[in-house]
Amino acid sequence: SKFYDFDAKITECSRDVQAALVEVGAWFTRSDLEAHTKYLSPEEIIQLAFDTAKKCLDKPLNNLKYNVDTSKSSSELKIPFSILPFINDVLFTLLNNVLRHSYLENPEIDCVISFDDSLKTFNIAMKSDCTPKSKSKNISIVNEIRQLIESNNFSSRTRLEGKSGLIKLANLASQSKQSS
User: Fold this and answer.
1) pTM, whole model, 2 decimals?
2) What are the angstrom distances between the C-alpha of 93 and each of 5, 19, 88, 104?
3) What average pLDDT is seen over the chain?
4) Which residue among 20, 22, 87, 179 has its CA within the 20 to 30 Å range from the CA of 11?
5) Radius of gyration (Cα) for the chain, nearest Å?
6) In this predicted model, what pLDDT tens digit does every residue of 24-71 receive, in sequence order?
7) pLDDT value at residue 143
8) How far apart are CA 165 and CA 39, in angstroms?
9) First vs last Cα of the chain: how many Å apart?
10) Residues 44, 69, 104, CA angle at the centre, nearest 5°?
11) C-alpha distances in Å from residue 43, one per residue of 78, 102, 122
């Protein structure tokens, strides 16, 4: 119907505007001057990233639970605010994949984000429920993506749209490892 198409376009525009605002906001972060860099606790940055990512999704998420694990970090761990757009992109991609591929109206999502300041890494473990149809339909695609990531052979897929979100994240993570 016309109203559904209109609502879908408004949602799409809202998502695009939110994503652009996060990106533009990153331009004004002065990461070159340590004294002017804003730092957040792991819990604060993850809360902010989830709040922003959820606003960019096509539909609301009501069954999201997450836990921030800092047991492998010092109590003084602070994350530069300039990292927020990256974390937001990662969480948005993961949540969007769940919404698109679970075939559920309101999937339950459990997420654990672990920080390890000695390795300067964070790990995201996300689990969600899905329909049996989704599992059988997507298992071969997921296995193919897993093989590409494990073989570090994904550069050609990063330029494609559709079924490339996890590959793009793997590419970002790979580049991050090489630069640190």
Assistant:
1) 0.71
2) 23, 12, 9, 17
3) 80
4) 87
5) 17
6) 666 665 555 555 578 899 999 999 999 999 999 988 888 999 999 999
7) 83
8) 28
9) 51
10) 85
11) 10, 27, 12
Can you tell me the distance from the alpha carbon of 172 to that of 170, in angstroms, rounded to the nearest whole number?
5
DSSP 8-state symbol, 34: G
Largest CA distance in the chain: 54
- For residue 52, the Cα-to-chain-centroid distance in whole angstroms is 10
Q: Which residue has the higher pLDDT, 105 or 18?
A: 105
Among 126, 131, 64, CA closest to 93 = 126
The answer to whether 167 touches 148, Cβ cutoff 8 Å, is yes
Q: In this predicted structure, which of 7-11, 94-98, 118-122, 130-134 has the lowest mean pLDDT? A: 7-11
Sign of CA dihedral 108, 49, 113, 100: positive
C-beta separation of 61 from 23 below 8 A: no
Query: Which H/E stretch holds residue 161?
Result: none
